[in-house]
Amino acid sequence: MFRMEKGRRGAGLVLVALISLMALPCWAQTQPASPPEDWVGKLAGLDTPPDLDLAALRQQALDRIKSRTDPVPLKRPPVAMQLLKLPQLVAEIQFDEDAAVARPESYRVLGRIADTLTDPSLLGYKFLIIGHTASAGRRDNNLTLSQRRADVIRDVLVNTFKVSPKRLQAIGLGEEQLLDAVHPTAPINQFTQIATVGALELNPPPVVPAKPVTPAKAGTHGHKR
Q: Quick one: signal sequence residues (predicted)?
């Protein structure tokens, strides 16, 4: 008798729970566990534009590799500390192994990046695409591969998703700026950074042509009487 009453009580509790769940509004039943990552917010808030010389930065990374400085990845400092202070996001864009060919499944991520960069609140800014690799293989090859991949991402954003080329620059830092230096071979070190680097000059001042210099006229000499 006691067991039957206990079973009935349990069934009643389940029935009440089901009725309560059905009474919830539809939006409460369909809410995701956590909101999507705010990429627009991550790229906003640039205080001071960095003074970046990308050609010099590439050469600095190459020189460090050639000099064999810091051969142990764990002891290797970032080659460009100023990039760490910028508003940025990190995205996983998959490539063919040892190649600069973006896989088809990555175009969804690239499309989301394009949507982020063309958000009205970010239209007045320029961005830097930063390619990385994990610490495996030759450092010089990784540097070259990361640059090629960063260039491919820029090309896809410009040609496929119609982001203005004036707003995008690209640089590859290989394994010279590991995203997870504690775990040099971790997959996250293959990810791509997008960083806000400055304001876009939408209406540059007009170039005023220099006025031509008019040669001085020769003077007229009078005759003495």
A: 1-28
Q: What's the start-to-end Cα distance of the chain, in Å? A: 151
Q: Can you say whether the dihedral through the CA atoms of 85, 87, 92, 97 is positive or negative?
A: negative
pLDDT in tens, 73-84: 888 899 999 999
The CA distance from 170 to 152, in Å, is 9
Sketch out the chain's domains with CATH numbers. 39-69+78-199 (3.30.1330.60)
Query: Between β-strands 192-199 and 125-131, what pairing exists: parallel, antiparallel or unpaired?
Result: antiparallel
Helix (H) or strand (E) segment spanning residue 23: helix 2-23
Q: How many CB atoms lie within 10 A of CB 138?
A: 12
Question: Hey, what amino acid is at 144?
Answer: T
Residue 151 has pLDDT above 50, yes or no: yes
- pLDDT higher at 172 or 71: 172
- Please give the Cα distance from 39 to 41 (Å, whole number): 5
- SS3 state at 59: helix
Whether the model pTM is above 0.90: no
| pLDDT given at position 27 | 29
Q: Please spell the DSSP secondary structure of 122-185, one letter per residue.
A: GTTEEEEEEE---S-S-HHHHHHHHHHHHHHHHHHHHHTT---GGGEEEEE-TTSS-SSTTSTT
